[in-house]
Every structure is written in structure tokens, then in C-alpha cells.
Specification:
With 360 residues, this protein is of the alpha/beta class. The strands form 3 sheets. A 7-stranded parallel beta sheet has the order 3-2-1-4-5-6-10, with helices on both faces. Strands 7-9-11 form a 3-stranded mixed beta sheet. It has a two-stranded parallel sheet with strand order 8-12. Helix 2 runs parallel beside helix 4 and helix 4 runs parallel beside helix 6. Bound molecules: nicotinamide-adenine-dinucleotide (NAD) and 2'deoxy-thymidine-5'-diphospho-alpha-D-glucose (DAU).
């Protein structure tokens, strides 16, 4: 059945993958995105000219705009991806994360609730507010701790994770207090096409190709659980369709890798697909640099609930998905050229230039 979805943050990495997948499934999308540094209209090039996609540049915290969009388009669901998303940026500028991730989400929730209350009963019951959260809200695991479950207490460590945890509490409160039919998902690290190259995998691909150092924080022994962005979108589609309102679902890849393993895999793929002119390996470009402040050691996600209830599990193996991702970046030099702007170079300078070398 075709639905109308108000999607926020739909020009970013995961949001654009979701928009493209939902358009392919026949849904109509109202895409509200502020186009911050990580929002990119080129991510939506495949949707150009599609009358089922309406793009609106704007802020989730702009009550008047959100109200007008709700009244005009009468969506069946709101899917909230919009956020500030990079941990390192949150360390340098936490207030921005509070503004968008906490205050913005709160304004969005309030505006949606006011409109939702005006709907006829049947439409009110069928409406959903899907909030995209992260496994980082649970904090950090030791090497042999059991993976996070949905009932693991929230112990966020970075300003980013704290802002996402705060938003999760607001979303849950809107269900408990006002009965808004909310759904929360908490996913592990995503990778795939169109990810802004401040995050580990695209940063390493592009830096390697430019002959630059590959900056691994600390020893590189920290562990992340990688999931392909399209697997994430498939999980979100099931939660939106069949998830019980008020529920939370973990989404994970079952692909825990140390950062050195992940960076090593990128280097090996590039050695094969785009060998260095001097015949040496990209591995030689790895540099251990000063660690991230408060660096979470390990994330691992128990996603048995979504498997049990909704039949979802990841379909793509990390090494295969990574090879496809590396090929995507190699095959889209124009996308890369337009993203690697002066602003991006300034970020690299700010975050990396002053970092001392660290012992591996
Ligand atoms: P991204 O940084 O690529 O995209 C964020 C998008 O939100 C951008 O298009 C940006 O322009 C938009 N945006 C920012 N502030 C806005 C505002 N005030 N109003 C409207 N739009 C705004 O991020 P992503 O990696 O695609 O992450 C999307 C969501 O998924 C986030 O909520 C993030 O916390 C969550 N998440 C990400 C990952 C991951 O590994 N990338 C994993 C789990 C959860
Ligand atoms: O777990 C889900 C989260 O994954 C999402 O909620 C976040 O939005 C997303 O950014 C991601 O957070 P991480 O901090 O894990 O991702 P990032 O790509 O920044 O870093 C991955 C790991 O690599 C982490 O241990 C830090 C390390 N790293 C990162 C960068 C950018 C480096 O060693 N060097 C780097 O230059």
C-alpha cells in the first residue's frame, strides 16, 4: 500500500538511502532537510523529476514550517533521521548537538502531536512516528561484555550520544504522556554509498586515494559493529510496518571489527582495485594518532528482538558490502569532488592537524 511519509534528514547518508528505497517501493516522500554540511542534494539525484518526491529545505525545529507540511501533505508517518551525527564534531561543538538533536526533536514531536490530535480516530491509530537512534546511547562495552539489549541502561559517553539519548527519552515520553504512536530504533555503525567522508570508512578511502595519512585513533583496537545502510533501511521498513507503538528495536550487523581490521580491509581492497603507482600497499599510509577523547571501546548489538518479532537479519556480509562501497567511491569521482570542499578541508585541519602521533 502506498503511503505518504514525512522524512526528515532525507538528504543525508542513511536518510537518502531510505528515501530512494521508499520511492522504489511506491511511497510518496516529503523530504525535510536543512542541508547542513552533511546534507547533499546529489544524494537524491536518482529521485530527480519524480513527482512522488517533494524536497523542502528547512529545520525540524521550525514549528511553522513543520505544521504547514503536516497540514498540506497529511502524512501517514513521520520518519526522523535529522540530526548532527559526528562524534568528533560533538566534542568540539556540543551546543549544536543539543539544538538539533534534543530541542529540534522536541519541537518536531510537539508539532506532530498537535496535528495528530486533529486526525479522525482511525487515521490517528494508524499514524506512526519512527525515530532513528543509535546503539551509542548504551555507552561502551568491555572486551567480553554481553552485547547491548533494548533493556541495557542508557549510559551515553560523548555529547553526540548524550544528545541522542535525551531525544530517545523525549520520544518515549511522548508515547507515555500523549499516546503518540512512536517507534524507536537503535542501530550500529552504518557503511555504504554516499556517506560523508568525515566517518571512518569513507575518510580512509578518500585519504588513501589522495596519498594522505590514514589517521587511526590510539591503538586502533576499538571495536565497531558494521551494518550496510541498505540492511538498515530494510529493518526500518519492517519496524514502520509492523512494530508495536511504544517499542524499541536494536539493529546490528553481527560484524564486529577492530578499527585496524576495518582500515586494513579498506587498504587491501584499494590495493586490488586501484593499486598505488609505486606498487606499495596503502597500509603504509596508516598513522596512529592521538585518541578521541572519551573514545568508546566497543559496541556490539543484540538484535534478537527484531529477528524474533519481525523476521529481520542482516543480509550483506561486511567484506562484500565494503568491496561494493569502495567501488562506489571509485566510480563516483564527481560526487567526491563536490563533497571535498573548502569546508571539508577546514574540518580535517581542525580535527587532525593538532593531533600528536600515538604509539600503535
Ligand atoms: P548524516 O550526517 O549523513 O545526515 C544527517 C542529515 O540531517 C543531513 O542531511 C542534514 O542536512 C540533516 N539535518 C541536520 N540538522 C537538521 C535540522 N535541524 N533539520 C533538518 N535536517 C537536518 O547522518 P546519517 O549518518 O545519515 O544519520 C542519520 C540518522 O541515523 C541520525 O539520526 C543518526 O543519529 C542515526 N544513526 C546513524 C548511524 C551511522 O552509522 N551513520 C548509525 C545509527 C544511527
Ligand atoms: O554506532 C552508531 C554510530 O556510529 C552513529 O550513531 C554515529 O552517527 C556514527 O558517526 C558512528 O559513530 P562512531 O564514532 O563509531 O563512527 P566514526 O566513523 O566516527 O568512527 C568509527 C571508529 O573509528 C571509532 O572507534 C573512531 C575511529 N576513528 C574515526 C575517525 C573519524 C579513527 O580511528 N580515525 C578517524 O579519523
Amino acid at each position: 500500500m502506498s503511503r505518504t511519509l514525512l522524512v526528515t534528514g532525507g538528504a543525508g547518508f542513511i536518510g537518502s538511502a531510505w528515501v530512494l528505497s521508499r520511492l522504489a517501493a511506491g511511497d510518496r516522500i516529503i523530504n525535510l532537510d536543512l542541508l547542513t554540511y552533511s546534507g547533499n542534494p546529489e544524494n537524491l539525484a536518482e529521485a530527480a523529476g519524480n513527482p512522488a518526491h517533494v524536497f523542502v529545505k528547512g529545520d525540524i525545529g521550525d514549528e511553522g514550517l513543520v505544521k504547514a507540511l503536516l497540514e498540506t501533505h497529511r502524512p501517514d508517518a513521520v520518519v526522523n533521521f535529522a540530526a548532527e551525527t559526528h562524534v568528533d564534531r560533538s566534542i568540539l561543538d556540543p551546543d549544536r548537538f543539543v539544538r538539533t538533536n534534543v530541542l529540534g526533536t522536541s519541537v518536531l514531536l510537539r508539532t506532530v502531536r498537535d496535528w495528530w490530535l486533529t486526525l479522525p480516530e482511525e487515521r490517528r491509530a494508524a499514524f506512526r512516528f519512527l525515530h532513528i537512534s543509535t546503539d551509542e546511547v548504551y555507552g561502551s562495552l568491555g572486551p567480553s561484555d554481553a552485547p547491548f539489549t533494548e533493556s541495557t541502561p542508557l549510559r551515553p559517553n560523548s555529547p553526540y550520544a548524550a544528545s541522542k539519548a535525551a531525544a530517545d527519552h523525549f520520544v518515549r515520553a511522548w508515547h507515555e504522556t500523549y499516546g503518540l504512536p512512536v517507534l524507536i530504533t537503535r542501530c550500529s555503525n552504518n557503511y555504504g554509498p554516499r556517506q560523508f567522508p568525515e566517518k571512518l570508512i569513507p575518510l580512509m578511502i578518500l585519504s588513501a586515494l589522495e596519498g594522505k595519512p590514514l589517521p587511526v585513533y590510539g591503538t586502533g583496537g576499538n571495536i565497531r559493529d558494521w551494518l550496510h545502510v541498505e540492511d538498515h533501511c530494510e529493518a526500518l521498513a519492517l519496524v514502520l510496518e509492523r512494530g508495536q507503538p511504544g517499542g524499541t528495536w536494536n539493529i546490528g550487523g553481527g560484524s564486529g571489527r577492530t578499527n585496524m581490521e576495518a582500515v586494513g580491509a579498506v587498504c587491501s581492497l584499494l590495493d586490488e582495485l586501484r593499486p598505488r603507482a609505486d606498487g606499495r600497499s596503502y597500509l603504509e599510509q596508516i598513522r596512529h594518532v592521538e585518541d578521541r577523547a572519551g573514545h568508546d571501546f566497543r559496541y556490539a548489538t543484540d538484535f534478537s528482538r527484531i529477528t524474533r518479532e519481525l523476521g529481520w537479519r542482516p543480509r550483506r556480509r561486511f567484506e562484500e558490502g565494503l568491496a561494493e562501497t569502495v567501488r562506489w567511491y571509485l566510480g563516483h569521482p564527481q560526487w567526491v569532488r563536490r563533497v571535498v570542499t573548502g569546508e571539508y578541508r577546514a574540518w580535517l585541519e581542525l580535527n587532525y592537524a593538532g593531533r600528536a602521533d600515538a604509539a600503535p
